[in-house]
Q: What sequence folds into this?
């Protein structure tokens, strides 16, 4: 018998711009002791479905309009708020995506852990403390006695997620709902958290609903999978079935969108070509000031530490690293968006680090950047036409009379409809915005593009399209590219060569296939081991 | 924590010093001496007066003399009423003004925060509109309009409450406290509603609700602490506003507080009196700002934990 | 670069809706805010035209008449000297609105300049500039203004400068916060990477994006300036006789409110209505321009 059986669940949001059906007639069930994966892109309603069951939909504007959710003989949707509260935190625990914001910053983690015990079980402070410390120990927090009175900001992201898990499981619930629990974490930390969840699930014979956009992770975790699209369930089945013989066209598209192979284009340079971009002993430091008046102290953080790299004309170098590794700072230092402390950046023989402001501004037409967040990288008050025409005018790429045709050409290049040029960024989807940002970078006809996590804010199907677009454009315009990403599969798909960065230093560099098939540095190996691909052996 | 505390306290000292310096110079810049009256004073008398008040000393000597006396709690004599010292007047007036401001502050805190929190729990419903409309009215009825209206209605028409004095007849403290506090209650209501709405949309509130906590516990134990930060940081300016607001309220209700003395001194051009009171007010306000600052630090564990 | 200069088949283009257009259509739906706007415009027109449309002259006394309640000849009644109350309130509006707008303009100029410089340069300059603002924040400004009027006598110019000098602090803080937030947005970095000059980035990319909060806060500063001026005039420290503002009219009204309540009620009502209108408009603008609400 199913532990939780959801039937015909429909949730709508009544906003001032109209009614949005977030969850549309959704049904699924989860067996005791099993892991159910819910997969979908942003806006698919996968989180909204679970929040609806738990009564956590912000209301107004949200409203659960129909359906039932049978849990241990009770329909959760018909329970009174008081009855539902006894289930939340006692019978069903939850963990969330962002461990940085999901813990109350004003309350010690000890108090936050004990709260559930004291509220639901009426435990004494002493007993609760004992139990909470045991729970912290179980999730792998070292010295739990000492950390008991710490505040959340004293923990790293991964540690906070461990605390969240301890909190969700402290009352020994029957069901754990994990909403993108590792999305905000680095890949090595993600692997640890996934292992932890898996271990606890087995030890406590727990049922888990695992919500994620990441097919590899879900395949690794789940026995059963539900695929959602635009509020509807499009496919259900065992993990093997769904991922290896998908039936619904959308699921097929999802699986196909995963970058699993090496670069599909042959390199456009010769092995003995001389370097086009040369980075020599580049160092960038950040100084931070602590204290006040007479107690001032300066701290120097070396974000980029003695980096030397070369790129040939037409080459794509993938730069891989976890958050804080300095990979973005390296990109920004080359762009001179931050000033490097020492070292040289030679682009076609010109040392960019020595250019005067005016010369630098002129030289910038040769090297351009594509940013991570397509929502923040376009000026919200400018139409697409203005955004694309501005660089053309400033650098006098074409005479004013030809601006329009040049803009049209750019729109064609990035696959956008010419008729949309008078629209504003907020009227586009994330993928379309990223296309506009690419077109803007291309407008000045640069030689070098630095792409800083250009697809990590995008859904997997959109990501595949943008990667394809980038590859085509580099071919068409003979572009040299530094492709910065935390996602190893993506890098493998686009890069000719790969450099791995850790704590400001390049720890390994080489041909893409060589690195992926035979990594040398232990850190590279750890990174590669932490990635979860769609592998048949993973699924139970 | 202790070091930040000491740093903040120390940094208030130069500010206070500058205030004293600024006011002192301003007063000395004022056209005409303190004894330019309608009546002509014989030169000999004027000279004696100047000598008696050390006005013939160089200005920097006068200034340091003044500061020296200040540090001993002595604000000097009143130029207008030689029989009284400024210190006496201040000691007579300050308990009344502080009591009035305190009650008004309590009115503002209790009504403001309560109605703000209540409104934020059900935004865009009647439970939100009613207290927020009241707050809007409070914001647009300045004390010098609200005070007379309250007197007209509760004092004269209904004859429920006394309309003048302080601590003379029972209940005479009610109307002045409400008059002074209403505007700040309205402002605090809006601030705390905004802070609550912001906090209630945070992820950690969702976590608290997912733990199965009751609505009250979520509000009091989890939301309120974050939501009150803007309220606390407004407390300093609010005290400044209450003190200057007491000028109006003390005038309307004929309360013998510092505000009324200050206004009298302003109209009489009693320079030493103004100087003393301005410095005292500045001192009170800087202290209150300091307290609000420290409270804010203490409320935020991120800042508290830093060594 | 304007799109109008381009000649081609405009009919084929899908017209975009700017954030300003979105905001304006939201504002238009807000009845309270629009009511406030209409009231204010009406008041401004009346205040400007007062010398031509006022039913009586400002100083014309009619001691025989004395204080009379509202009537067909004197809509808002007369004061003890028989002067027409409506006329006096209209002239008072000129003063109060003028102080409100000019002092706000002073605050706007200082605050925006200060906040923009601090926010855009950042670092130690910013720390120093904002520390200065913090210190000024902790000072009893109303009391200083009173002190200034005592020392220098009362004048309109002093009032503008003094009130402006108080109100710029919050403006500077808000502008700085906005500039800091915008400065680190990727589209500014993109503009730098594109090789645009600093002035161009300031005016084309930063300015249009900080305008919203500035408009909102300006609308909310005007009522607090009007309030401060009325407060001073009520105490007899603001506008000098024979001129009068709403504050001094209210103060006359309070003296005689038991016998002639209309002398209090009408100026008080005018002041409060104006404050309502400005606050409603400010709140409406906040709702309409707030990016968090307009985000998709």
A:
């Amino acid at each position: 018998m199913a532990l939780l059986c959801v039937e015909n669940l429909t949730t709508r949001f009544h906003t001032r711009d109209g009614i949005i059906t977030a969850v549309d007639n959704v049904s699924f069930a989860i067996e005791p002791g099993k892991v159910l994966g819910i997969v979908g892109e942003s806006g698919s309603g996968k989180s909204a479905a679970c929040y609806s069951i738990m009564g956590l939909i912000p209301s107004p504007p949200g409203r659960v309009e129909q359906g039932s959710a049978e849990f241990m003989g009770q329909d959760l949707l018909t329970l009174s708020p008081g009855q539902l509260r006894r289930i939340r935190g006692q019978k069903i625990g939850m963990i969330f995506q962002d461990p940085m914001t999901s813990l109350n910053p004003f309350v010690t983690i000890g108090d936050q852990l004990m709260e559930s015990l004291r509220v639901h079980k009426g435990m004494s402070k002493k007993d609760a403390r004992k139990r909470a410390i045991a729970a912290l120990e179980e999730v792998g927090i070292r010295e739990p006695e000492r950390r008991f009175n710490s505040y959340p900001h004293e923990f790293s992201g991964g540690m906070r997620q461990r605390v969240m898990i301890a909190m969700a499981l402290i009352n020994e619930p029957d069901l754990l709902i994990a909403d993108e629990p590792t999305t905000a974490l680095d890949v090595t930390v993600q692997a640890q958290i996934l292992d932890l969840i898996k271990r606890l699930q087995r030890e406590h014979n727990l049922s888990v609903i695992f919500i994620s956009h990441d097919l590899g992770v879900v395949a690794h975790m789940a026995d059963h999978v539900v695929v959602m699209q635009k509020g509807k369930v499009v496919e259900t089945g065992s993990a093997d079935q769904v991922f290896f013989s998908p039936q619904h066209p959308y699921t097929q598209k999802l699986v196909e969108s995963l970058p699993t192979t090496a670069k599909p284009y042959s390199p456009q340079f010769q092995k003995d070509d001389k370097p086009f971009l040369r980075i020599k002993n580049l160092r960038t430091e950040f100084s931070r000031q602590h204290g006040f008046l007479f107690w001032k102290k300066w701290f120097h953080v070396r974000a980029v530490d003695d980096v030397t790299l070369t790129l040939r004309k037409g080459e794509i170098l993938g730069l891989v690293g976890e958050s804080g590794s300095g990979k973005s700072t390296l990109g920004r230092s080359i762009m001179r968006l931050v000033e490097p402390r020492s070292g040289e950046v030679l682009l076609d023989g010109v040392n960019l680090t020595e250019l005067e402001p005016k010369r630098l501004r002129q030289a910038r037409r040769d090297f351009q950047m594509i940013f991570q967040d397509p929502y923040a990288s376009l000026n919200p008050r400018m139409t697409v036409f203005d955004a694309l025409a501005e660089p053309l005018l400033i650098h006098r790429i074409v005479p004013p009379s030809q601006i329009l045709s040049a803009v049209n050409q750019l729109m064609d290049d990035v696959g956008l409809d010419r008729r949309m040029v008078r629209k504003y960024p907020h009227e586009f989807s994330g993928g379309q915005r990223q296309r506009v940002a690419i077109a803007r970078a291309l407008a000045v006809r640069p030689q070098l593009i630095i792409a800083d996590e250009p697809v990590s804010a995008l859904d997997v199907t959109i990501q595949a399209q943008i990667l394809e677009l980038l590859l085509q454009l580099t071919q068409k315009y003979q572009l040299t590219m530094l492709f910065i990403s935390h996602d190893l599969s993506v890098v493998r798909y686009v890069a000719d060569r790969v450099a791995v960065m850790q704590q400001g230093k390049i720890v390994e560099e080489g041909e893409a296939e060589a690195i992926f098939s035979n990594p040398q540095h232990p850190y590279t190996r750890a990174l590669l081991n932490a990635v979860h691909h769609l592998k048949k052996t993973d699924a139970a | 924590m202790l070091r930040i505390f000491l740093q903040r306290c120390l940094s208030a000292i130069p500010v206070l010093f500058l205030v004293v310096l600024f006011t002192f110079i301003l007063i000395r810049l004022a056209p005409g001496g303190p004894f330019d009256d309608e009546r002509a004073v014989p030169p000999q008398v004027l000279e004696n007066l100047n000598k008696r008040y050390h006005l013939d000393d160089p200005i920097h000597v006068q200034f340091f003399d003044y500061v020296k006396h200040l540090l001993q709690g002595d604000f000097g004599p009143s130029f207008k009423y030689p029989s009284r010292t400024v210190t006496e007047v201040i000691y007579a007036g300050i308990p009344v003004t502080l009591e009035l401001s305190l009650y008004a502050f309590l009115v503002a805190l209790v009504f403001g925060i309560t109605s703000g929190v209540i409104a934020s729990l059900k935004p865009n419903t009647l439970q939100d509109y009613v207290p927020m409309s009241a707050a809007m009215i409070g914001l647009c009825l300045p004390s010098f309009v609200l005070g007379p209206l309250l007197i007209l209605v509760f004092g004269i028409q209904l004859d429920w409450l006394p309309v003048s004095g302080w601590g003379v007849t029972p209940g005479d403290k009610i109307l002045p406290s409400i008059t002074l506090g209403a505007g700040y209650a309205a402002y605090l209501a809006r601030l705390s509603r905004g802070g609550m709405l912001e906090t209630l949309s945070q992820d950690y509130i969702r976590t608290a609700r997912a733990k199965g906590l009751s609505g009250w516990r979520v509000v009091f134990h989890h939301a309120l602490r974050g939501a009150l930060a803007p309220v606390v940081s407004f407390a300093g300016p609010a005290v400044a506003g209450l003190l200057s607001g007491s000028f109006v309220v003390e005038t309307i209700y004929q309360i013998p507080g510092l505000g009324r003395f200050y206004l009298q001194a302003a109209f009489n051009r009693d320079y030493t009196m103004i100087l003393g009171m301005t410095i005292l007010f500045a001192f009170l306000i800087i202290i209150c700002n300091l307290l609000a600052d420290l409270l804010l630090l203490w409320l935020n564990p991120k800042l508290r934990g830093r060594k | 670069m304007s799109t109008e200069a381009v000649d081609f088949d405009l009919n084929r283009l899908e017209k975009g809706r700017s954030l300003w257009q979105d905001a304006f259509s939201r504002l238009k739906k807000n009845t309270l805010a629009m009511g406030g706007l209409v009231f204010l415009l009406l008041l401004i027109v009346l205040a400007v035209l007062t010398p031509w449309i006022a039913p009586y002259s400002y100083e014309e006394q009619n001691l025989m008449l004395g204080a009379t309640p509202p009537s067909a000849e004197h809509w808002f009644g007369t004061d003890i000297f028989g002067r027409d109350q409506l006329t006096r309130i209209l002239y008072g509006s000129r003063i109060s609105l003028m102080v409100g707008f000019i002092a706000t303009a002073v605050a706007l100029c200082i605050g925006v300049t200060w906040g923009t410089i601090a926010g855009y340069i950042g670092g130690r300059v910013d720390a120093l500039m904002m520390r200065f603002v913090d210190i000024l924040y902790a000072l009893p400004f109303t009391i200083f203004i009173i002190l200034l009027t005592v020392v220098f006598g009362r004048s309109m110019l002093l009032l503008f400068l003094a009130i402006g000098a108080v109100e710029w602090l919050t403006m500077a803080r808000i502008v700085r916060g906005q500039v800091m937030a915008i400065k680190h947005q990727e589209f500014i970095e993109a503009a730098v990477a594109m090789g645009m000059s600093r002035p161009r980035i300031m005016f084309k990319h930063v300015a249009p994006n900080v305008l919203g909060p500035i408009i909102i806060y300006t609308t909310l500063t005007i009522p607090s300036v009007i309030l401060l001026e009325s407060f001073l005039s009520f105490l007899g420290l603001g506008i000098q006789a024979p001129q009068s503002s709403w504050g001094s009219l209210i103060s006359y009204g309070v003296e005689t409110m038991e016998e002639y309540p209309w002398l209090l009620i009408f100026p008080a009502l005018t002041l409060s209505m104006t404050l309502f209108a400005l606050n409603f408009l400010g709140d409406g603008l906040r709702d309409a321009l707030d990016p968090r609400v307009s985000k998709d």
